[in-house]
Design a protein that fits this description.
The complex is a heterodimer of chains A (188) and B (441). By secondary structure, chain A is mainly alpha-helical. Chain A folds into two domains: 2-36, no CATH class; 57-176, Cytochrome Bc1 Complex, Chain D, domain 2. Chain A has nine helices and four strands; from the N terminus they run H-H-E-H-E-H-H-H-H-H-H-E-E. Chain A has helices spanning 2-15, 18-23, 36-39, 60-70, 72-75, 83-86, 111-114, 119-128, 139-152, and strands at residues 32-33, 57-58, 162-163, 178-180. Among the domains of chain B are: 131-174 and 187-300, Oxidoreductase, molybdopterin-binding domain (Sulfite Oxidase, Chain A, domain 2); 309-439, Immunoglobulin-like (Sandwich). The longest helix of chain B has 8 residues, at 197-204. Chain B is globular and about 75 Å long. Classes of the chains: A mainly alpha (188), B mainly beta (441). The interface between A and B is large, with 69 and 84 residues.
Chain lengths: 188, 441
């Protein structure tokens, strides 16, 4: 039985009868087909392994100028935090820090002491930043800001060019620092 | 310890079922015991002798009232029944609004009082222009308008939503003196109506290689969370209605993902995109924010379930018990795994326990109201509740929880989120003046 259960979805897939099954459940089938080209502007998630990183590149030097103009107002000069982030309340965090983790205090986690993968940094900046003007940065600018934050945290050499090939190779120190809370429901 | 006690003055026999005045829950059903209401002052057994004032005709019965508004708002006498705002001046950071559990009853959170956390303000989404895209490892990427989705077979279900950061102040090494709204106000419960996500996924044709999906919101943060596909095919929904009316803007208007029982942040609001993938994205939200640093230096990730929890809402900090007598202990229990089967209440800090009455119907992954009659003798009391679910899980004591998860080195600001997924027993201390305070026991 478990074998049958495992084989059934691929079998249905091959036979192409999934939509026939759902049609029987009263599905009006009103989804409209859309092409990859028309999806592109929204297809902005980045795999932890760097999958789906776009063309383009940037360096820390380029990123420093963009950061000063568009990011430091909330994240502080050089990304080192502001009075707001030091209040201990949910706020724009310091992005550059040599803070060590203290006990179970999640407010002491940082990009350099905690994030397991580097590509999601690109993904987050591109999706959500700057706070007042999300989705306004070019991919080159996002690469440059990613390079700047990684270099200031001494996770890459300051002259390193960051792009779809180099970003996934950045080794984050806490890569193996996590335990899956519910392995029984978490696909590996 | 069971004993029968006779109260002077009224002659009613009420069975004490646990220490420090907990009475049999049967007393809730009978006519023999007066219990205090939401706005009550705690007049109970043994205080029936005082003479009442003679009645007069009050002014509201002597004139025309107000016109009916198109959308009702509460009485001005209930104007304190509101959410608390952690970012009232809208500084450039998340805005957090908490549910006033101590002022509510039953199991439904009114829509205006449902907790909300928004990271870049509440978006002003035109539902006519909003689209839901499903793509990635599917046979046919499809895009849906709200009008189209409203023609699908709809389902309603009651579900709580709880932020992973709810109860975070209880990681403090000392009890933070604040009320149940500040401590547990990031959980709410509503009836949600929408379409089963499985119906939409199957319309797209699921590639057998898909193991996860990434859900993304349409608002400024474009928040992304990774969800095991099995949840999407189980009880996940795309919902449009909350307690019968369109979703509140803070709760995801015009549509949100509902993952019953799972960490609030995963229930992506303003849902606009679902991408089927082979592995999680490890987005900011799951790489840093919604993780739980552990005492051993590791950190938990993918803490999907909100585990079984309960807390007493009445009496709770802020209440003053005015005189000894009968009071009703009332609270909320819920489990992200299933149904609440039992809530035990203690009035003596856990030395003895008695089973509370559960308000029917008890629904899976929904708030369950529990009640317990209690005779306060005017002395010190320590009130606790502890819940069990039908999947075999029980709410841990604080000692059990801290042994596994640790606690902070110093007292944090009450609104800070220093760790997540706290679900241990909460204790309220009643002193002989009738003042209720947060305590550890």
């Amino acid at each position: 039985m478990p074998m049958l259960k495992a084989l059934l979805p691929p079998l249905l897939w091959i036979l192409g009868i999934q939509s026939a099954l759902t049609a029987n459940l009263g599905n009006p089938n009103l989804g409209k087909p859309i092409s990859p080209a028309d999806i592109a502007r929204w297809d902005i998630d980045i795999g932890r392994d760097g999958r789906w990183l776009p063309p383009g590149d940037g360096t820390a030097a380029q990123g420093a100028a963009i950061f000063a103009e568009k990011c430091s107002v909330c994240h502080g000069d050089g990304g080192r935090g502001t009075d707001l982030s030091r209040k201990g309340l949910p706020s724009p965090p310091a992005l550059v820090s040599d803070q060590k983790r203290k006990g179970i205090d999640g407010s002491t986690t940082t990009i350099s002491n905690f994030w397991p993968y580097a590509p999601p940094l690109f993904g987050y900046i591109r999706a959500a930043m700057p706070w007042t003007e999300p989705r306004s940065l070019t991919d080159h600018e996002v690469y440059a800001l990613t390079a700047y934050i990684l270099a200031e945290n001494k996770l890459i050499d300051s002259r390193q060019v960051i792009n779809a090939h180099t970003l996934p190779k950045v080794m984050m120190p806490n890569r193996n620092g996590f335990l899956v809370r519910f392995p029984e429901i978490t696909p590996r | 310890m069971k004993q029968r006690t006779n109260t002077p003055n009224d002659g009613n026999a009420v069975e004490q079922v646990a220490g420090n005045g907990l009475l049999h829950r049967r007393a809730l059903l009978g006519r023999s015991v007066a219990v205090t209401g939401v706005f009550g002052t705690g007049v109970g057994l043994g205080v029936t002798g005082a003479a009442a004032e003679s009645l007069v005709e009050p002014p509201w019965g002597l004139k025309i009232g107000d016109n009916s508004p198109a959308y009702q708002t509460p009485s001005k006498f209930a104007k304190n029944v509101v959410r608390t705002l952690a970012n009232p001046d809208f500084e450039p950071r998340s805005s957090v609004a908490r549910t006033p559990h101590h002022l509510l009853e039953g199991t439904t959170t009114p829509n205006g009082l449902h907790f909300t956390i928004v990271h870049t303000g509440i978006p002003d989404i035109d539902p006519g222009r909003h689209r839901l895209l499903i793509h990635g490892l599917v046979k046919r990427p499809l895009i849906f308008s709200l009008d189209a989705l409203l023609r699908y077979p709809t389902t309603s279900r009651v579900s709580f939503v709880e932020c992973g950061g709810n109860s975070a102040p209880l990681f403090s090494p000392k009890p933070i003196q604040d009320n149940v709204q500040a401590l547990h106000g990031l959980a709410s419960c509503a009836e949600w109506t929408g379409v089963k996500l499985s119906v939409l996924l199957e319309e797209c044709g699921i590639d057998p290689g898909a193991k996860w999906f990434i859900a993304e919101g349409a608002d400024a943060p474009h928040l992304m969370r990774s969800v095991p596909l099995a949840k999407g095919l189980d009880d996940a929904m795309v919902v449009f209605y909350q307690n019968g009316e369109p979703l509140m803007p803070g709760n995801g208007f015009p549509m949100r993902l509902l993952l019953p029982g799972w960490e609030g942040n995963l229930n992506v609001k303003y849902l606009r995109r679902i991408k089927l993938v082979t592995e999680p994205a490890m987005s900011y939200w799951e790489s840093q924010v919604y993780t739980e640093p552990m005492p051993n230096g590791k950190a938990y990730q993918f803490t999907f379930f909100n585990e079984v929890k309960s807390f007493i809402t009445r009496p709770s900090p802020g209440y003053e018990l005015k005189q000894p007598g009968i009071y009703e202990i009332s609270g909320i229990a819920f489990s992200g795994r299933g149904k609440i089967t039992k809530v035990m209440v203690s009035a003596d800090g856990g030395r003895s326990w008695a089973e509370a009455a559960l308000q029917a119907p008890v629904m899976s992954k929904a708030f369950t109201r529990f009640r317990m009659p209690w005779r306060w003798d005017g002395g010190a009391a320590l009130l606790q509740s502890r819940a069990w679910d039908d999947q075999g899980y029980s709410q841990p004591t604080r000692a059990e929880f801290i042994a596994a998860r640790g606690e902070l080195d110093a007292v944090p600001p009450v609104a800070a989120f220093r760790n997540h997924h706290f679900n241990a027993v909460t204790s309220w201390a009643v002193d002989p003046h009738g003042t209720v305070k947060h305590a550890y026991a």
